Amino acid sequence: MKSFIVVMGVSGCGKTTIAKGLSETLGGTYLEGDSFHTLEAKAKMAGGTPLTDEDRWPWFDQMITAAHVELSSGRISVLSCSALKESYRHYLFHSFEDPRLIYLEGSFELIKSRIDEREHEYMTSALLKSQFDTVEEPKNAPNVLKLSVQSSPSTLIRSICDWL
Prior knowledge:
Number of helices: 7
Shape: globular
CATH superfamily: P-loop containing nucleotide triphosphate hydrolases
Number of strands: 5
Number of domains: 1
Distance between the termini: 9 Å
Largest sheet: 5 strands, parallel
Structural class: alpha/beta
Radius of gyration: 15 Å
Strand content: 5-15%
Strand order of the largest sheet: 2-3-1-4-5
């Protein structure tokens, strides 16, 4: 299988854990969406200001390029990225054949409690409300899998592998 897989959801839903574990299980390459943000974007978010769409397009371009590099080398590419809006996902996927999307969903209260328990370079629970306000749940489609974050990471990864 040569594929581009995006694990999406709001901050704190477990994207990194699931995408890393999935890439290891599949023998693919893990791409951490946060690592593609500019220093300016990270500073903006650390200051409590959500990014605008204009802030995001160059970020998406870098992730797309990195995924194509991996795919051209014959490796599965697994990206963790919030991809909150349908327009973002369309932009991310437009140049890929048969991309896959895994949406990790959970309640505001559960995810906020997870964020409050962790340390992150710039994302705190103060920005979580804006992410829940922004998220556009993906429509049901053959290339979309929706999973509850209440399940354990190993259960989620197993479910994804069965689906793939």
